[in-house]
Design a protein that fits this description.
- The complex is a heterodimer.
- Chain A has one domain: Up-down Bundle (Cytochrome C Oxidase, Chain A), CATH 1.20.210.10.
- By secondary structure, chain A is mainly alpha-helical.
- Chain A is built from 16 helices and no strands.
- Helix content of chain A is 65%, strand content 0%.
- The longest helix of chain A has 36 residues, at 71-106.
- Classes of the chains: A mainly alpha, B alpha+beta.
- The interface between A and B is large, with 41 and 38 residues.
- Chain B: Keywords: Copper, Membrane, Signal-anchor, Transmembrane, Transmembrane helix.
């Protein structure tokens, strides 16, 4: 992806200059493409790191009994896997895509706040260095699950929890600055004629995601600050002995946490809404309803948080409210799935790698959505709560949802980023290995979960042995396949068939009007949008 | 191109960030108020000042539970497991606490009512949970709780449980006072 370097200034702008040379180019850059590239690489490194933690988990769960790691270390692995995948892999990947593509899609020369853009990226390596360093500290790293429920994360936490809190603060600041930048860019830098309802859906979903980020990341910062105060300054936000309440933690956390899951999926919705029309050679079906559905999902995400905590003891009326509100989310989500399918209906479909990932996204995300509906049924949730069924559910919405959305986007826009076509055969191989590996890994988790296997435990009953072995084999397959993806990307950067400005004949959007690779500076004169 | 000038837009977004950070903290009192107003989570109110007329036609069984939080070493129990009460009448139950260690310690009891919807109908006119307990080494005290079950208690509730969890708060509130049950008045 570093092949965006544009040495020949073919766009003919006198003031334009290429990137600086050497390392300082990356440290000091304010160019949205450079920063997007750094976000994407950072996210990929974190994806491999978080993935390697998942490999440790699956290796331990390959057979019943304790074989490879200590239970205490297993807990750190489940915690760090979740934290790194959520905050280090998925979120920065979408910010990277936003940095690269939003200015190109709306005809803007750069992001609205380029210096802040640089700062919000460089906070991330600091945050994750802080977080990962806790694994080497006495007492170990965070071991309380990525949801860090108090008092597990306060009274009973390892000493390194303070590092974890500061890492969350840094990530939060980075996300908020990124979100402010996205909103400012979209609202202020659109090319003439690019009205809101002409924006590509990726831009729309990111605009809504950015508002979600600004609304909930400060609440996350607040909840970890309360933890910090409980641990070090003698307050009792979450300590019953001092008049606080541990259940309060769960309410505040999930007030952040539920919108957070939509933060991780809405940009993927947007990307897929560009990719499916491109390879169906039809305009997106129901653009307006897509926009309103996204807004509806974002609104509903604020009033469903307690469905994560049906078992803590909330009144029946509350359980009913949160149950029905949660099920209501299926309506706008159903609108989206319907629109994607209708877009493909009677289209002239071809199945290049981005389209394969996008179709798998629609099918598998829907499976994850249905298991979510099952979990939303409050009385049934008492059985499913904290079992592998929940693990299966959120991996089905995050892996073939968020991650496949990112893969689809990467393949779709790699020609624009690198100026080369990726190897289609290798891309399809990557897809099929990921598809099979992912389903092998996560589908059996539904069965062991329904049969009662609890999550976050390094050992299990013998009856779950076969399904767990299948899960582990699938996970190893999926994990190894991602090294192969790294190879495909590097191969595409280093060479390949030169990509035309618009490599996909059905693709729409301003990003395809600039040459491939996209010059270092684009749209310094705003394009006219009809 | 359109909308607010960049500076004003960014200022508003930053303001929104600050407001949401404050909202995170505002959730703490909001949560307490909601719990008390709707009697959720089994949280009981503070000291009850009113009085009611006993309803001899109805009896409700009140069960008592006493639990030590982790690390708490005191003996802590009620003098009876359960009593039958008439709604509206004032009742008393005595709890006993004993500090078996050789150090003075302070403790805080946190009450909870099950079923949670009955919490709003359970009034404590006097409770050791309103204060903190300081016990000298080996000291044993009897701690009364006086309560009224409201006449408006829904008919579906035939028995309810008053559970206390006793927390060791010696580290937080060093036991300086000699007099037991003297401490910070807290609204629970």
């Amino acid at each position: 992806m570093s092949a965006v370097i544009d040495d020949d200034h073919s766009h003919g702008d006198d003031h334009a200059h290429g990137p600086a040379k050497g390392l300082m180019r990356w440290v000091l850059t304010t160019n949205h493409k450079d920063i997007g590239t750094m976000y994407l690489w950072f996210s990929f490194i974190m994806f491999l790191l978080g993935g390697s933690f998942a490999m440790v988990i699956r290796a331990e769960l390959f057979q019943p009994g304790l074989q490879i790691v200590e239970p205490a270390f297993f807990n750190q692995m489940t915690t760090m896997h979740g934290l790194i995948m959520v905050f280090g892999a998925v979120m920065p990947a979408f910010v990277g895509l936003a940095n690269w593509m939003i200015p190109l899609m709306i005809g803007a020369p750069d992001m609205a706040l380029p210096r802040m853009n640089n700062f919000s990226f460089w906070l991330l390596p600091a945050a994750f260095l802080l977080l990962v360093s806790t694994l080497f500290s006495p007492g170990g790293g965070p071991n309380f699950g990525w949801t860090f429920y108090a008092p597990l994360s306060t009274t009973y936490a390892p000493a390194s929890v303070t590092f974890f809190i500061f890492a969350i603060h840094l990530m939060g600041i980075s996300s908020i600055m990124g979100a402010i930048n996205v909103i400012a860019t979209i609202l202020n830098l659109r090319a003439p004629g690019m009205t809101l309802m002409k924006m590509p859906l990726f831009v729309w979903t990111w605009l809504i995601t950015a508002f979600l980020l600004i609304a909930v990341m400060p609440v996350l910062a607040g909840v970890v600050t309360m933890m910090l105060m409980d641990i070090h300054f003698g307050t009792s936000f979450f300590s019953a002995a001092g008049g606080g309440d541990p259940v309060l933690f769960q309410h505040v956390f999930w007030f952040f946490g539920h919108p957070e899951v939509y933060i991780m999926i809405l940009p993927a919705f947007g990307a897929v809404s560009s990719i499916i029309p491109a390879f169906s050679r039809k305009p997106l079906f129901g653009y307006t309803s897509m926009v309103y559905a996204t807004g509806a999902i974002a609104f509903l995400s604020f009033i469903v948080w307690a469905h994560h905590m049906f078992v803590v003891g909330i009144p029946v009326v509350g359980e009913l409210f949160f149950m029905y509100a949660t099920m209501l989310i299926a309506v706008p989500t159903g609108v989206k799935v319907f629109n994607w399918v209708s877009t493909m209906w009677e289209g002239a479909l071809t199945f290049e790698t981005p389209m394969l990932f996008a179709i798998a996204f629609v099918i598998l995300f829907t499976i994850g959505g249905f298991s979510g509906l099952m979990l939303a049924i409050a009385p049934a949730d008492f059985q499913y709560h904290d079992t592998y069924f929940v693990v299966a559910h959120f991996h089905y919405v995050l892996v073939p949802g968020a991650i496949f959305g990112i893969f689809a986007s990467a393949y779709y826009w790699l020609p624009k980023w690198t100026g080369h076509m990726y190897d289609e055969t290798l891309g399809k191989l990557h897809f099929w290995l990921s598809f099979v590996g992912m389903n092998l890994a996560f589908f059996p988790m539904h069965f062991v979960g329904l049969a009662g296997m609890p999550r976050r435990i390094p050992d299990y009953n013998l009856q779950f042995a076969d399904f767990n072995m299948v899960s582990s084999i699938g996970a190893f397959m999926f994990g190894a396949t991602q090294i192969f993806f790294l190879f495909i990307v590097i191969k595409t950067i280093r060479g390949g068939v030169p990509a035309p400005a618009k490599p996909w004949d059905g693709a729409e959007g301003l990003e395809w009007s600039v040459p491939s690779p996209a010059p270092y500076h684009t749209f310094q004169t705003p394009p006219e949008v009809k | 191109m359109n909308g607010l000038p960049l500076k004003r837009l960014v200022r508003r977004l930053l303001l929104l960030t600050v407001v949401m950070f404050a909202f995170g903290f505002a959730l703490v009192p909001i949560y307490d108020v909601m719990c008390r107003a709707f009697g959720i989570n089994g949280k009981t109110g503070g000291q009850y000042e009113g009085s009611q007329v006993s309803d001899p036609t109805r009896t409700v069984r009140v069960q008592f539970m006493s639990t030590n939080a982790s690390d708490m070493v005191w003996d802590f129990y009620s003098t009876a497991d359960q009593i039958e009460v008439n709604p509206g009448a004032v009742n008393q139950m005595v709890f006993v606490a004993h500090n078996p260690t050789d150090k003075p310690m302070s403790a805080q009891a946190i009450p909870s009512i099950t079923p949670a919807e009955a919490a709003a109908y359970f009034h404590k006119t006097e409770c050791f949970c309103f204060t903190q307990q300081v016990l000298q080494p080996g000291e044993r005290i009897e701690m009364p709780v006086r309560f009224i079950v409201d006449r408006d208690l829904p008919g579906s509730v035939r028995h309810l449980t008053l559970a206390y969890t006793l927390f060791d708060i010696t580290a937080r509130h060093p036991p300086v006072a000699q007099v037991a049950t003297e401490g910070v008045q807290r609204a629970r």
